[in-house]
Amino acid sequence: MFASNEPGKSIRDQLCLQLDGLPENEKLQQVLAILDTAAETEEQVAEIIWEAWDYLKIHRLWQCRYPTFEALQDAIGYEEALKDIIQKHDILTVRKQREARGIHENWGALPHKSLPAHLCPPKFSECLLRALNQLSRTCSLNQAIVLLDHEIARRHSKLGKGWGVSKEPYVLRRDVLEVLSQPTLLTPGHSPYNGQSDGAPPIDFTIEVERANTQYRTTTDRAEDMDKGDGEDKEEDEAEDMDKGDGEDEDEEGDEVEDMDKGDGEDEDEEGDEVEDMDKGDGEDEDEEGDEVEDMDKGDGEDEDEEGDEVEDMDKGDGEDEDEEGDEVEDMDKENDGEEEEVEDIENDESDEETAAVLVLSSYSCSCSSAVIKDIQGMEDKNPNDDRGLRLLAKALQLGLHNVCHNHLRTLAKVTVGLQNNMSSSKLRKRLQDTWRNKSHLDDLRRRNPHWFLKTRRPETDADRLVVYRYHPVPPKAFRFNETRVFERFAGPGSWGGWQRDGTIIIPRLFSFLSRPDIGRKIDVEFDLYRYHHRSLPGRSRLGWLRNMFYSIIQQTVRQDPVWYAISAAARPDKNWRLISYPYITKDTDPGENTGFLHLDLNTAQYVKDGSGGNLLSSSIALDDEQADGCTVGVPGFHRHIHDWHNRLVERGEDTAGFTTNCSTAYRAQDRKDWGEPIPMPCPALGLRLTRPEIIHGSTPHSYRRRRSLFAWYTGIDEAHINLDLKGTLLWNDLAACHRDLEAPSREPSGQAPRYGLPGFRFPGSVIVGPSSAIGDALVGRRKWTDPQVIRELDILLGDDDAAAHAYVGRVRAKMMKQYEEAFEQLEITETEAFGENSYFRQKELGLPLRSDDNSDGRRKRL
Predict the structure, then answer these.
(1) Within 10 A of 637 (CB to CB), how many other CB atoms are there?
(2) pLDDT (tens digit, 9 = 90+) per residue, 438-462?
(3) If you average pLDDT over every residue of the chain, what do you get?
(4) Which of 224, 596, 733, 742 has its CA 20 to 30 A from that of 312?
(5) Are 272 and 363 in contact (CB under 8 A)?
(6) CA distances for 516 relative to 325, 558, 769, angstroms
(7) Mean pLDDT, rounded, for 631-659
(8) 734 Cβ partners below 8 Å, 6+ apart?
């Protein structure tokens, strides 16, 4: 060691002081000795750092000062100061094992067994093993022993002081190198292998090299206690996996060097060939596959009966509880707290350690039961299933887990009960046994020990939910409202009773805030614009619908109206207040146009079977005063008779399976006599018509004047904001995208595809209307109903304070009108830029005739 108490004296000064004046050959020997010692010292320092880092992780020491493991790494400069050293130690560990294997192949035994005890050092460094491996390829074991004894004696006999003189009684790397430098070592015909027959299988070097380094340790008890004490409760593998993603398997078979470039702490316990630190104590044994003899050096008191654990519950009936109350879920965090562990039967092995070493060879050629292998492979191809997995685990336990190789043991643990499997065989076997003992309470076991299991096979934990957040939010209160009060607040006193009786209602002047003359003129312009751009499909009547008008400014505006929403939420049978407007076309009839139809907005058979579609109310705003000869018709109260009518349809053999139910012919004279004729239900301008889906409704046969209507089609959303009321319709996310992009949905509110054509792109002249409220945003998919601001507004709009609700409506509607006017200012610019000479506004400005939609006979109408 270089040290000096003299200030300012450098290592170079000390080196020159020691070497100057010596012969050149002696200088060389001393410098080589320094370099040799430095290499071994560096290896020992790396081991100290690796062990200290591993101990820190196992015992989770960072938690007393740092919030996270990564925070500790940042604080100590792990990436710059430690990572390379730890990775280098891992690489050296692999090299040491490779060199030890070479020695075994040439001399028939590992160095601690092949060399006499007086030649064995306390530690076999990587440099020493490499030199011994080279020597084993050069001369026989007997010749090597003689030569090494001679070289050690020569080293001891050297005169003088200095770093080149060393009195260690055991072999050093420099001794081996001196022997190798001799010109002739191997006689012709030399066979370096002695000690085993040619047919002997290879020894598990991980275990045997470990013994070679630990037989001289005097601190094995302390080391074992470290691995089996409180730190075990923290789960070594959990700490080691800090740098991995959940469930990543880094320890594939034969990949002992694969993970060397990865972050430290990744398990290296490959199939039968795990990377072991040869300088670890017995207490640090990783007990890899094929380590049946690993614990033979331990006291008899540590031997534990595996077989009794494995088949402990096998004789119990399926209906019997395996564990008494209070013993149902054992504390699985204590891996070595009085629970029986498995250890292979070594009665014969104890008398013959060499035979035990040979038994380890089974790890290199899998001898697992073919039935178990087939079952494991079958489980890999199927979805995880605890019942099927436990049956396979029971079979494996009956055969004995020690008869399953490490590779198949890992797969067994994963596919049967979803255990993490990047760990030693002994730990895997123990966890499989613990899981079997608690098979009747598997979910409880998974909750208590989530780090044992794959994320996909265990209940969600706080860590899964919070991720980078620190605290759970306060659970939201369940939102409830008085539907009768809300309905009558906006529809008028006594309206609730009429709604329940008839299943349909007309609420006059509900949208009177649109009655301003300037707003009415702008609405007229919008309808004329879309009529100008509309093209009817050849051979198909328009039936009074404007099928290109999905996102006019007035449509976007009224879809966000709080009153329309509040009445719809209150009227729904399921009281679902999470709604979204389903974009739909407008009604705009011409005088003399055929408009007649009669139907139900649901599949009657499916509704009777499971209630499907029963919450999807139809509602519309009338923009013009309707008359009895040109309006909606319906059968009030039919929702009370729909089941009887469906039974009659079945008896007639007329049951239908469409998205809607055509009643034009199905609703016969006898039906009309029993349950009522469809009657006209004219709605005044700016009034609301609301109808249950079980009400037969339609339109008068002909139109005698212009009649325009707007539709909201408020559709229910599930709590997860995924699905809507009806199967076959778009998902919430898809519908929100339609509102955002102003594109027509590919399915109608009933779930059927549009029968009269669908625009393939956004209408180029459309303009987005800005937000007017948080509730309005939710109604068009800009926000979720879980948004805190939405909930606060709901408490007002659907709350018990009528005055506060009306005040809120007034504020929102005023903002709606402001947003409408701002958007309308952009409409002319946008439409003119989009269509140029074909623009509606350009044609109007030039005084040219404005043409309506094309008719199937080729005639055009002026607007």
Answers:
(1) 16
(2) 999 999 999 999 999 999 999 988 8
(3) 79
(4) 224
(5) yes
(6) 75, 15, 19
(7) 92
(8) 745
Instruction: Give the burial class of 599: count Cβ atoms within 10 A of its Cβ; 0-12 exposed, 13-18 middle, 19 or more buried.
Output: middle
Burial class (CB in 10 A: 0-12, 13-18, 19+), 312: middle
Residues with Cβ within 8 Å of residue 851, at least 6 apart in sequence: 532, 860, 861, 862, 863
CA pair distance 494, 487, nearest whole angstrom: 10
- pLDDT for the residue 158: 64
What are 736's two structure tokens? 């929100």
pLDDT in tens, 764-797: 999 999 999 999 999 999 999 999 999 999 999 9
- Residue 544 DSSP code: T
CA distance 123 to 44: 10
CA distances from 282 to 110, 329, 344, 382 (A): 17, 31, 17, 41
Contact predicate 531/852, CB 8 Å: yes
Percent share of the chain, pLDDT over 90:
48
Contact at 8 Å (CB) between 367 and 403?
yes
Tell me the C-alpha distance between 424 and 291, whole Å: 10
pLDDT at 351: 32
For residue 677, what is the DSSP state?
-
And the tokens for 832? 């003119």
- Residue spans per domain, the chain: 11-185+201-243, 368-459, 538-596+625-636+696-845
Token duo for residue 612? 């499907």
Which alpha helices (DSSP H) does 586-741 contain, by range? 604-610, 642-652, 669-675, 732-741
pLDDT of residue 538: 78
The per-residue pLDDT for range 615-638, each reduced to its tens digit, is 999 999 999 999 999 999 999 999
What is the rounded average pLDDT of the residues 368-384? 81
Rounded CA-CA distance 103/151 in Å is: 20
Mean pLDDT of 409-417: 93
Q: How many CB atoms lie within 10 A of CB 655?
A: 16
3-state SS, 61-130, equals HHHHCCCCHHHHHHHHCHHHHCHHHHHHHHHHHHHHHHHHHHHHHHHCCCHHHHCCCCCCCCCCCHHHHH
CA 503 remoteness from chain centre: 46
Residues 166-201: tens digit of each pLDDT: 678 888 888 898 888 876 554 444 444 443 433 334
How far is it, in rounded angstroms, from Cα 336 to Cα 332? Answer: 9
C-beta separation of 178 from 151 below 8 A: yes
Q: What are phi and psi of 223, to 5 degrees?
A: -65, -40
- Contacts (Cβ under 8 Å, ≥6 apart) of 673: none
pLDDT(303) > 70: no
User: How would DSSP label each residue in 704-763?
Assistant: SS-EEEEE--EEEB-TTS--BSSTTS--HHHHHHHHHHT---SS-TTSPPPSS---SS--
Query: At residue 454, what is the residue type?
Result: L
Q: Per residue in 228-273, pLDDT tens?
A: 333 344 444 443 343 343 444 434 333 333 333 333 333 434 333 4
SS3 512: helix
- Contact at 8 Å (CB) between 168 and 35? no
Nearest to 97 by CA among 286, 306, 234: 286
Helix/strand/coil for 633 = strand
The answer, as to whether pTM is greater than 0.90, is no
pLDDT digits (tens, 9 = 90+) for 58-74: 888 878 888 888 888 88
CB 664 within 8 A of CB 598: yes
pLDDT confidence tier of residue 592, bands split at 50, 70 and 90? confident
Report residue 594 as tokens.
């055929």
d(CA 338, CA 354): 31
**pLDDT value at residue 204:** 44
Our separate counts of H helices and E strands in the chain read: 33, 13
